[in-house]
Each structure stands twice: as C-alpha cells, then as structure tokens.
Amino acid sequence: MKRHLISAADLTRDDALLVLDTAEEMARVADRPIKKLPTLRGRTVVNLFFEDSTRTRISFEAAAKRLSADVINFSAKGSSVSKGESLKDTALTLEAMGADAVVIRHHSSGAPHRLAGSGWINASVVNAGDGTHEHPTQALLDALTMRRHLSAPGRDLAGRRITIVGDVLHSRVARSNVLLLTTLGAEVTLVAPPTLLPIGVEQWPCTVSYDLDAVLTTSDAVMMLRVQRERMNAAFFPTEREYARRYGLDGLRMAALPEHAIVMHPGPMNRGMEITAEVADSPRCTAVEQVANGVSTRMAVLYLLLGGSEPALAGARPEPAAAEPATVSAAGSDPTEPARPAGAPNATAARTEESK
Ligand code: CP
C-alpha cells in the first residue's frame, strides 16, 4: 500500500484485496462483547472535516477507537477556519499535536492531495471525500458489501455487472467506484441524464447509458446516487418528478432486477427522488449494511496505512488480554484458537509486506 489513500486509483488489485480481506478480519471484532483491539495504541488519528458528514465521520471515529488509537475530531465549523485560518496553518497545528494519520473531508477537490504532498505534515493522509473528486473508502466499503453478496471471501468481483445511477457529475462516490470496481474486475455501467455526466466520461473505464430500464435485468448490483442539489447551480433536469420517473428506483423497477441483485446507496438518501421509501426499506437494499461495513473497512485502512505488518488480529484477544506476548494467528482463523509464533506470518501478513 502507498503511504496515503487519496484516490481509488492508488490501489492495485492486490492492495484492494488486502484491504477487503483485512476488513473481513476486522469485522469479526464487531461481533465481540468488547469491540476493541490494541493495534494502534499510542497512535493519533485526526478527523479533519471541512464539510458535513454523518456516516464517514462517525465510522472513522469508531474505527480508530476500536483500534485503540487516540482520536482528535476537528470540524471546520466552530474552529479557527471560520476566522480565516488556512489549510497550511491548520495542518501545522495538527503536526504539532503529533498526528499519525489525518482523515480529511473537504469541499474542494484536491485538498487531500495538497495536504499529502505539501510537506506540512508527516502523517498518512486519507481522503474522506473531496469535492466532486473521490471518496476511496466509500468505494472500498461498497466493494466489501458487493463481495459479500455477489462473490466470496478472498475473491475479486470479476464479471459482476454493476450499474451506478444518477448524479454522476457531482459524485465522488461514482468516480471512486468506477476506478475500484474495474480494478476488481467488475463491469460498470453509468446511467444518468446527459446533463449529469461529467465532460470526458467516455474516457472512464465503463459503459454509459441513458436508459435505466434497459440495464436493470442484467445488473448484479444497482447503486443509486444522491441527487446533490447543494452542488447544483443550474437546472440539470426539468423537474424532480421527471427525474424520479426516468432515473429513480421504485418497486416496479426493483422487481425487474435479477433475484440475486442488490440495491445500494452510499447515503444520505433523498427518499422519493432517486429511490422510493419502498425500495430503501426493502431487504434488498444494503444501505445500512454498507454503513456497518464502513467501520471494518476504515479499521483496515487505518491499520494498513499506519504500518500494519502483521495480521490485523495478531494475538487477537480484545482488551485487556492485549498485554500478552505478541503472537500471530492464521488470517481468517478464529483468533481465540492457539496462535502460531510471531515470525510465522500468514498470507495476509506476507501480502502486506510485499506490497509496501
Ligand atoms: N456516504 C457518505 O459519505 O456519507 P456522509 O456524507 O454522511 O459521510
């Protein structure tokens, strides 16, 4: 893995599989009475949010805390940013606090890239959504969700047909998903009105359609995108009713999907716009599952970026048993089983070392 995670394009197929496999290991922590590992004890993770968030912010905080990191939550609202403080001076302040990882969400595309390459901080930078550019950890948690429903542990998404529908123009989720899903072997189709497709989309590694009904019957997953009214400074479609009629997912359209297909939404949802309440609340909709997968995915990302060179659950017993001598257990095995000695890394550890 690279030191920073700015774009889904930063991940090779092996990197992406490593994150997903590690996330599966991390997910097992969530099933325990004590959902905590000592892995990042003594490390500091700063959540630097210049733009509103519910899911991403909470899940990064939960992820860092479950790994026993110290967590500093910074929100631009109520900070010295409102007095005109620059990103540079904010970054220098974080550096002085000893940040090991900075998770940044920013309204400007490119802000995480700037922070990572600035030399202002030594921390690993994780892009938690920048403008209309990228949201790589969202794509990773979406891939984890798809893999659970459509593939198998340890495998990629080769041959799976994923349809992404709606406001692609303003969607960092769509961009990161197209990049990651194609890295994992999936075939991606974007469906949107021409006004909500970015210039240059024909260069993206995917197919484009304007007809949702034409692609539903061959889709393994349909990902509905939020119509981002707050980023719209012009009329991109005649009326909301017209948009919902042509590009919204309702019960009738959901019934046209293959039986195994899932409906995804990164949230927050505009119920009645891109998705009806009937679909959002149906068992086929994975929106809540995606949020849960976000915690284990972000645990995996923080663990790997902050130097995880052993299986995530090495010697894995929840606190307070963490003080026992470090041992290495087989990846994918029950962490309460007898552990192999340190120095006998399993496949996950080996792959981590290789890809550094
Ligand atoms: N999916 C997503 O990024 O949601 P939040 O804006 O609530 O973080």
TrEMBL record:
Record-level Gene Ontology MF annotations: aspartate carbamoyltransferase activity
Sites where the protein binds L-aspartate: 83, 172, 226
Coiled coil: none
Domain Aspartate/ornithine carbamoyltransferase carbamoyl-P binding: from-to ranges: 3-147
Catalytic reaction list: carbamoyl phosphate + L-aspartate = N-carbamoyl-L-aspartate + phosphate + H(+)
Alphabetic keyword roster: Pyrimidine biosynthesis, Transferase
Limits of the Aspartate/ornithine carbamoyltransferase Asp/Orn-binding domain: 159-305
One Pfam family this sequence matches: OTCace_N
Chain sites annotated for binding carbamoyl phosphate: 55-56, 105, 135, 138, 267-268
Pathway assigned in UniProt: Pyrimidine metabolism; UMP biosynthesis via de novo pathway; (S)-dihydroorotate from bicarbonate: step 2/3
Keyword RNA-binding appears in the UniProt entry: no
Gene3D superfamilies the record matches: Aspartate/ornithine carbamoyltransferase (3.40.50.1370)
Biased composition (Low complexity): 314-331, 339-350
SUPFAM superfamilies linked to this entry: Aspartate/ornithine carbamoyltransferase (SSF53671)
Spans annotated as Disordered: 314-356
Protein EC: 2.1.3.2
Family annotation (NCBIfam families): asp_carb_tr (TIGR00670), PRK00856.1 (NF002032)
Function: Catalyzes the condensation of carbamoyl phosphate and aspartate to form carbamoyl aspartate and inorganic phosphate, the committed step in the de novo pyrimidine nucleotide biosynthesis pathway.
Family that this chain belongs to: Belongs to the aspartate/ornithine carbamoyltransferase superfamily. ATCase family.
Subunit structure: Heterododecamer (2C3:3R2) of six catalytic PyrB chains organized as two trimers (C3), and six regulatory PyrI chains organized as three dimers (R2).
Protein name as it appears in the record: Aspartate carbamoyltransferase
Organism: Actinacidiphila polyblastidii
Gene behind the chain: pyrB
